[in-house]
């Protein structure tokens, strides 16, 4: 006890002597964090959003490859926020978008929620791949529910999904479902369509793919992952600061030993990278490396997938929750990547004190996040191919009965019509 008492007295004496430095420094950091939260919140609240419903004709035979091209176009939303004034005065952040699949008793709908400034970008990207699509501005489906859920009438279950392993590993993508000739008619979205077609009365299921474009810096980690998989140890390059520091200490060393030996200005021999053992890898390991290399060869987005299920309390069932979660399992692989629930946002608390209160609090936060389409803190990196696998407009052979489509193609006017 005497030792602890002595330590506390020492800390207190130091604080008494330096309180006039410690307290203002602490307050500066607190005020700075509050300022950043305020300006970023003000910037986000000032964003004008548009919710677009996309319907494609029943006869369309496009594959998810078309949707991949749309996501590639959406990547042009990437902005470079380099000016200190924009970041620390105006609170600018990278804009994001939400690609959504919504199912209820009225049918299955596909939406895109996008900042108003990029509405034309989305429309042009969709029409370029689906010329006969119909894009309309829609009323937000969230507004049809009370502003606070759960309440006495409705209950909610939700979860944010991210990648279980390093983002360099891809999930199973649409190319897997098209590998064999006899399986070319498989569409990964079909399973979700069948589940959502069974929703009745006040049931609703929302899938929100929340993404923001990022630059190519994430690919460096993918390259490091490949080097690790092939057993190649790369030597990190020294920064200009590290080189200057080495030169300084070399000067000090030569200065100290100058009376007894001649100065040596030769730089120490650099380590050479270890050669890879690629030839000794199994075919399975080589497939993993090819998959990682394939992922980092495409444009990347940072984000997560949110799933929310809502129904009246007196009819709430977990059967449809399990069915939708099963939809995501088809993208999981043992040797690559898989979807994993975010333990901090899932609306089920099974351990610890105050479980009932914590569960209700998480449900309110989940509904609010879904309503505002806020990207969770824990995110993963998805490339365009992965996103197109999760979200794309179903092929004509997908027979979900509640799927909303355009019954007939829009035909253009016949050539040669008089203009006056």
UniProtKB/TrEMBL annotation:
Domain of life of the organism encoding this protein: Bacteria
Full protein name: DUF8128 domain-containing protein
Record keywords: Membrane, Transmembrane, Transmembrane helix
Transmembrane segment boundaries: 17-38
Domain DUF8128, chain residue ranges per copy: 64-394
Pfam family, one: DUF8128
Record-linked InterPro entries: DUF8128 (IPR058441)
């Amino acid at each position: 006890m005497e030792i602890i008492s002595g330590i506390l007295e020492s800390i207190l004496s130091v604080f008494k002597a330096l309180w006039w430095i410690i307290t203002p420094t602490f307050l500066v950091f607190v005020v700075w964090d509050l300022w950043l939260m305020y300006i970023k919140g003000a910037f986000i609240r000032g964003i004008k959003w548009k919710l677009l419903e996309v319907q494609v004709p029943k006869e369309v035979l496009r594959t998810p490859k078309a949707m991949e091209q749309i996501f590639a176009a959406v990547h042009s939303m990437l902005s470079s926020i380099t000016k200190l004034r924009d970041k620390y005065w105006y609170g600018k952040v990278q804009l994001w978008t939400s690609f959504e699949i919504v199912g209820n008793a009225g049918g299955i709908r596909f939406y895109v929620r996008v900042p108003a400034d990029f509405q034309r970008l989305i429309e042009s990207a969709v029409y370029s791949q689906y010329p006969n699509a119909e894009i309309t501005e829609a009323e937000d489906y969230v507004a049809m529910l009370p502003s606070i859920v759960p309440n006495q009438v409705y209950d909610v279950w939700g979860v944010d999904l991210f990648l279980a392993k390093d983002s360099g590993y891809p999930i199973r993508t649409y190319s897997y479902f098209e590998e064999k000739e006899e399986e070319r008619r498989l569409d990964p979205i079909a399973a979700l369509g069948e589940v959502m077609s069974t929703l009745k009365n006040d049931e609703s299921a929302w899938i929100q793919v929340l993404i923001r474009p990022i630059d190519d810096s994430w690919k460096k980690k993918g390259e490091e992952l490949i080097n690790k998989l092939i057993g190649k140890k790369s030597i990190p390059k020294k920064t200009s600061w590290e080189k200057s520091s080495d030169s300084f200490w070399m000067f000090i060393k030569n200065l100290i030993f100058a009376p007894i030996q001649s100065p040596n200005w030769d730089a120490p021999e650099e380590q050479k990278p270890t050669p890879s053992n690629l030839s000794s890898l199994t075919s399975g390991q080589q497939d993993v490396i090819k998959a990682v290399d394939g992922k980092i060869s495409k444009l990347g987005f940072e984000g997560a997938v949110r799933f929310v299920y809502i129904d009246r309390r007196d009819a709430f069932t977990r059967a449809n929750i399990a069915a939708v979660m099963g939809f995501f399992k088809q993208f999981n692989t043992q040797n690559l990547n898989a979807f994993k629930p975010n333990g901090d946002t899932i609306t089920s608390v099974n351990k610890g004190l105050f479980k009932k209160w914590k569960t209700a609090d998480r449900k309110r936060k989940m509904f609010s996040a879904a309503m505002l389409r806020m990207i969770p803190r824990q995110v993963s990196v998805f490339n365009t191919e992965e996103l197109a696998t999760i979200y794309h407009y179903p092929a004509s052979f997908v027979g979900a009965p509640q799927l909303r489509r355009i019954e007939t193609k829009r035909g253009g006017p016949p050539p040669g019509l008089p203009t006056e």
